[in-house]
Specification:
This protein is of the alpha/beta class. 36% of the residues lie in helices and 19% in strands. It contains 13 helices and 12 strands. A hairpin with a 5-residue loop joins strand 4 and strand 5. The longest helix has 24 residues.
């Protein structure tokens, strides 16, 4: 049957007499693949529009979707990492009734320019944060060397006590300090660190979201410092040390939870409650009425009762807040040994290198969020958010 527009002279021949092709035929798939490659793997709608001018194919969009999914070039160039579901909190974030700064996250930020005479030099700030009560401790660091890092850690340990675990990124100074301290703990620093050795845990490289506990506090400290330091003037070293102490006090008196104005608890829980006994350290009073009938008349029993009440409030008010999952809800396919992956290692895809997974590291919930990847440059540990699986072996 002739087309109703066959008598029109201004319509091209292909539009008047389109070629009718079956949906599941091999020729149809080859033509669709040819158009897909001809237009350089662009948007499917562009290819569909060009094919409709010459062919009449039922459900053409679904055919182009299958062609795009089976295209190896599209799989490689459009592969993106799949973020696993948010992991459960580690023990260092959920363990109550422990000494502050038992579990510590350490990070550097800077440089901060200061005045030394008529010259200007750079200094860095080491931020120690208690992963349980979210308190901070700031130390001024003169350089990024391992020796400066060790001296900052020793000053911290002298005033805050030895931690059970350090959590850091993979900076060179932290790796060097970890090796040096493990030797000194057993020899020179045995009296300082007591009999319990301090372990050091490193997050995977290029995974700052796994160190969000201290990355967020770095931002808070920077805001506190910038509100004190005037932009045109550079402070001297003594002034900067004073500013760091004031910023530390400001951060440690921040509320950990949101308390409505009509709440029965007139004072919000802060890190200073566990360090000083009060949000500002001016007074030590119980936040809620305490039954003193079973408490001996001794000051240390009273102090212990107040501290326990702070921890009970921490469990009741703060722990449910950090236990919520605010993103990464979907369950994705776990990485497996032997998978070909692209390692996200640069701003552009041309800088991503290919590798093969040789080992997977499961978490507490048995989900895979880290893996060892073998590349042409060696074997590296990377987070799952930095590994894009290439499904080209099916």
């Amino acid at each position: 049957m002739r087309s109703r527009s066959s008598a029109a002279t201004f319509i091209p021949f292909e539009a008047k007499y389109p070629v009718i092709l079956p949906r599941h035929h091999l020729i149809t798939n080859l033509i669709a693949d040819w158009y897909h490659r001809r237009f350089n793997h662009v948007n499917r709608e562009t290819v569909v529009n060009e094919m409709r001018q010459r062919f009449e194919i039922p459900r053409l969009r679904s055919i182009m979707y299958k062609v795009t999914k089976s295209c190896v070039w599209c799989r490689v160039t459009k592969a993106v990492p799949a973020t696993p579901a948010m992991a459960p909190l580690p023990d260092c974030r959920t363990t109550p009734f422990i000494r502050p700064f038992t579990y510590v996250g350490l990070d550097y930020f800077g440089p901060v320019p200061i005045r030394v005479g008529r010259s200007q030099v750079k200094r860095w700030v080491a931020l120690f944060t208690c992963l349980t009560i979210r308190a901070v401790h700031l130390e001024l660091v003169h350089s990024l060397s391992t020796e400066s890092c060790i001296m900052a850690i020793r000053r911290f340990v002298t005033r805050r006590g030895p931690p059970a675990e350090f959590y850091t990124d993979n900076a060179t100074c932290f790796q060097g300090a970890s090796k040096e301290l493990q030797i000194e703990i057993a020899t020179k620093l045995a009296s300082t660190f007591t009999s319990n050795q301090t372990s050091w845990r490193f997050i995977p490289p290029a995974a700052p979201h796994m160190g969000g506990a201290w990355e967020r506090l770095v931002r808070s400290v920077k805001i506190a410092i910038s509100s004190v330091i005037e932009a045109p003037r550079k402070p001297d070293e003594e002034t900067l040390e004073t500013i760091l102490c004031e910023a530390e006090a400001m951060i440690n008196c921040r509320p950990l939870t949101y308390i409505p104005l009509q709440s029965a608890d007139q004072e919000a829980l802060t890190p200073n409650h566990f360090i000083l006994g009060n949000s500002t350290g001016v007074k030590i009073l119980p936040m809620e009425p305490i039954d003193y009938s079973g408490i001996l008349r001794s000051s240390w029993k009273l102090a212990q009762s107040i501290t326990d009440e702070f921890w009970r409030r921490w469990i009741r008010e703060y722990l449910p807040v950090i236990s919520r999952r605010c993103k990464w809800f979907e369950t994705v396919k776990d990485l497996q040994v032997g998978d070909l992956v692209l390692v996200v290692s640069g701003a552009t895809r041309n800088q991503w290198i290919r590798g093969r997974i040789v080992e997977v590291i499961p978490g507490k919930d048995k989900r895979i969020r880290q893996a060892m990847v073998k590349t042409s440059a060696g074997v590296f540990r990377r987070a799952a958010t930095k590994l894009a699986v290439l499904d080209v072996l099916e």
